[in-house]
Design goal:
340 residues; 5-stranded antiparallel sheet; 3-stranded parallel sheet; alpha/beta; Immunoglobulin-like; 2 domains; TIM Barrel
Amino acid sequence: MDGPERHGDSADGIDGWRLDVANEVPPGFWRDWHALVRKINPQAYTVAEVWDDARRFLEDGQFSATMNYHAFSIPVKGFLIDQSLAPSGAERQFNDRRNEYPKAMQYALQNLMDSHDTDRLASMIVNAGRRPYSQPGRFDYDINVSPRNVPTYDVRKPNDGERRVQRLVALMQMTYVGPPMVYYGDEVGMWGGDDPCDRMPMVWEELKYDPQQADPLGRKREPDSVAFDENLCNYYRGAIALRRECESLRRGAIDFVAADDLAEFLAFRRTDEHETLLVGMNRGKAPYRWKIPAKEGASLAQIFTASGDSDQVTIEPGHAETVVTVPAVDGVVLRVQTSK
């Protein structure tokens, strides 16, 4: 969960639990189980694996949160990865699905994009053009994502453009309501389809593999297929640091402020009593001129970009509005600065 840094110590006991297929066990069991767990540790964080709307189950079973496939992973795939969900539709799904949960629970929902049960994020992006959907309501999230039974599923190395989309998705994770969960290896560039590709050994910076070594499906690896991606890793470090440093991203309110379907642009505001941040996501193929109404005494400062090309983002202050140009397939975080 978002909060003060804690360092693990086995003597402290267990601080959190993730419960597999929790909805296949009656809520009464989980109520009894939670009574025992929280008697031992009142602050224990418990996460249920439920793929659909989980509010009633979480309340009945007294869980802290769920793995947020329903209200985060699926709309993010539809909007940022597949480009099948227009920004206005994404705004609607984010709001409607998030608000199905009590306010306090919204800030505990575990925002993930992939896991041991899905294809990896990078490969979702590589295969984004797969149509038609067999389950349109899910944008085929975790549907037909293994080369074991879909020979056309592509497990090649992502290209630079696809990595750019991954950065945009990661920025959404780090700036949205609820703690982000990054599946191991995504941050260093790992990719792959569903099991067993998504459960490959972690790629460490100092570890070198034989490029002739076959993967679990019997195919030879590309020479650089398991290389540690230092640039991507540094990007994730920076995005995580952004969230840690900005209280409004962890605990602040959210409201969407722009949704341009034609340009594929979506923006929202995160606010608390100390700061206001604006987050703009441009999934379109062209730079987007984001017009932000001016408020007396306020100015905008760029503090983060998904691409890292901060010099490509321009801010043009005006009397009635400020125009921020966001490059194609890029995201920007702006701080609203008010003079006193």
